[in-house]
Design a protein that fits this description.
The chain is mostly beta strands. The protein is built from three helices and 57 strands. The longest helix has 14 residues. The relative contact order is 0.06.
């Protein structure tokens, strides 16, 4: 076997022959019940600088020396994976945004398995990724030809289930379990730990587990995932798969970006776009595609920054978390992201988030914060086909959702709907609801104890978007006054307006509509008490120009109450509701039921003018025009 130290330069045929002979010594793919034949001391390979050796079939070694400039190659249509003592290692992407991997130069020793497996191509946004994985499961069960099974250590693996397995990777762009083609598979009591970068979390290139394809069902129970790396996600559910996660833990930390990486969208998005006001390079979970479902029960989901419980580019999807702990371990990030036509349920969960509890990112998203009542969970067990036994249902305690955000609550940069019910407690250091120039629909039912506590005293902020539109963009604060649009009706709610309805709740905080262009804020308080300023306003950031360096300034504004221009404020009080006005408020409509009231704090009085004329605030009144409420 050539070592690269001799002056003799072997022909390619000789090189291939050498590797075929090596493969014959340790022939055959690793059996799923064990590992490939243990190598003896004679099973060594040295590849010199400038040499290329083609590994024709799976082989075992006791040592491998690969010089700088030396290459291990495989036939077209195949991929090469190396494990050393059961750990996938040595694989590196051939360039920063390349899709293929190679074995890094170095000296390796131990129980080495070089697996030659059929490529598993996955395409997103026009880019095809030749995925590698420890275990590929298809419609008929295990597909050994696509599996680097020497990375499966211990436990039992069958066509339908894996139990007690450990998968460890220190290479790049390697997956643990890949379940596809309508397969049904269960993974239990398994530990997965990956260190090193992935490549694309839209296809799960580098993810610990992937469930993909219509009819595919992947169930996890007692699985622990600990990953660290760029887009090295814990779990990706995509393209119509049905994934159920129980009693498991997924924890993903940021990796180190390649020094020459320049932000790219789509298949090349290795970091979160800064225009969301956050940073980070790994999402713990991701749900994408049409008709995909992912349900997490009694589990822990954590990302360092970026996002923990994410959906992206979805249609007709359902993302559900029941009795889970969802968190950002760092100072930034979101707990969940609702993007596209998705129904997202967070029931009985605890959220501890850096920047946002949730981002609503596209139209038709519907988000629920609520309790994990037995009746609701039982209904979801049927509707989502979770397969929970009566014993499992009985073991899930009923509990309320508790959300603590170190900045905002829910942020809209796409239209969507939020429902809050049960005993949900939403506590934020900054604004509770942040609407960036889109239709936000909010309903809050406080009859069972739901409560909102904004640390900065603002419950709802409607504002022009400060998203610069691209990662290379710059946001510049407008300095001119808004121009009245004579075609826009500020006294009537439109389908495109922001609406918020509150029932049986006591609220303390302000509500501002700082839109410059036509968008109204319609507020309804039903059997509720609200104390604060409800007003049209002008909003300003602390600085006038925001670039990627100042991304943390996004969304943070102060307000100056001012008369309505194109930003109508419609307030309806009904069923005994009471508004205690704490400062000058400018409205375009005020409607009171006969048993509702507008008051001032103790020791003060409130007065109203409509179009400049003093007007009494009477029970059952309905007023429209340029309304000003003042407190003296």
């Amino acid at each position: 076997m050539a070592t690269g130290s001799s002056a003799y330069e072997p022909s390619m045929r000789d090189r291939v022959r050498a590797l075929v002979a090596l493969a014959t010594v340790g022939a055959g793919s690793a059996a799923l019940s064990g590992t490939a034949r243990a190598a003896d001391a004679s099973d060594t390979l040295t590849v010199g600088a400038g040499e290329t050796y083609v590994v024709a079939t799976t082989a075992t070694l006791s040592s491998l020396t690969l010089a700088e400039g030396g290459t291990l190659a495989v036939p077209d249509g195949y991929s090469l994976t190396m494990t050393v003592d059961g750990v996938e290692t040595g694989s590196v992407l051939t360039a920063t945004l390349a899709t293929s991997t190679t074995i890094a130069p170095g000296s390796y020793s131990g129980d080495i398995v070089l697996t030659v497996a059929e490529q598993n191509p996955a395409t997103f946004a026009g880019v095809t990724f030749p995925l590698r994985q420890a275990l590929y499961v298809g419609a008929d069960g295990l597909v050994t030809a696509k599996s680097a099974s020497s990375a499966l250590v211990g436990g039992t693996v069958t066509d339908t289930a894996a139990q007690g397995v450990a998968v460890t990777s220190t290479g790049e762009a390697f997956d643990g379990f890949y379940v596809a083609e309508g397969a049904a598979y269960t993974v239990t009591d398994t530990t997965i730990g990956f260190t090193g970068n992935g490549r694309c979390d839209f296809v799960g290139d580098g993810a610990a587990l992937v469930g993909t394809g219509s009819g595919t069902r992947l169930v996890l129970d007692g699985v622990t995932v600990s990953n660290k790396g760029v887009v090295r996600s814990g779990l990706v559910a995509e393209d119509g798969a049905d994934v159920v996660v129980k009693n498991s833990s997924i924890r993903c930390l940021n990796g180190t970006l390649p020094a020459d990486y320049v932000f790219g969208g789509g298949a090349d998005m290795l970091v979160v776009p800064w225009r969301l006001g956050i940073s980070g390079n790994v999402r713990a979970t991701n749900l994408i595609g049409t008709g995909t479902r992912a349900t997490y029960l009694n589990s822990t989901i954590a990302s360092e920054t970026w996002g923990a419980f994410s959906t992206d580019s979805v249609s007709g999807a359902q993302a559900t978390a029941i009795n889970c702990a969802i968190s950002n371990l760092g100072d930034e990030g979101y707990g969940s992201f609702a993007d596209g036509d998705v129904t997202e349920r967070i029931l009985g969960c605890t959220l501890d988030t850096g920047t946002y509890a949730t981002i609503i990112g596209a139209s038709n998203s519907t988000l629920y914060y609520g309790d994990s009542t037995r009746s609701d969970v039982a209904q979801l067990n049927t509707d989502l086909e979770l397969g929970l036994s009566e014993e499992e249902l009985a073991a899930l305690p009923e509990q309320s959702t508790t959300i603590t955000s170190r900045q905002f609550g829910v942020m809209w940069h796409g239209a969507g709907t939020l429902h809050i019910s049960g005993g949900t407690l939403l506590t934020t250091a900054a604004t509770t609801f942040l609407d960036k120039a889109v239709r936000a629909t909010i309903t809050v039912d406080g009859s069972q104890g739901a409560a909102l506590t904004p640390g900065n005293g603002v419950v709802l902020q409607v504002m022009e978007t400060d998203n610069p539109g691209s990662n290379a963009g710059v946001y510049t604060e407008p300095t001119d006054d808004p121009v009245k649009d004579g075609t826009w009706d500020v006294s009537t709610a439109h389908d495109t307006d922001t609406t918020a309805a509150f029932t049986a709740i006591a609220l303390t905080g302000d509500f501002y509509n700082a839109m410059r262009t036509g968008r109204n804020m319609a507020l309804t308080f039903d059997a509720s008490a609200v104390t604060g300023v409800l007003s049209a306003s002008a909003s300003r950031h602390a600085i006038d120009t925001i670039t990627s360096a100042e991304y943390a300034q996004l969304g943070h504004v102060t307000n100056t109450a001012q008369p309505v221009v194109n930003n109508g404020v419609l307030v309806t009080l009904t069923a005994g509701a009471e508004w205690t006005v704490t400062g000058t408020s400018y409205l375009s409509r005020l409607t009171l039921s006969a048993d509702s009231a507008v008051t001032a704090p103790a020791g003060s009085t409130v007065s109203m003018t409509v179009d400049g004329e003093p007007t009494a605030i009477e029970p059952g009144g309905d007023y429209s025009g340029a309304i000003t409420l003042s407190v003296a």
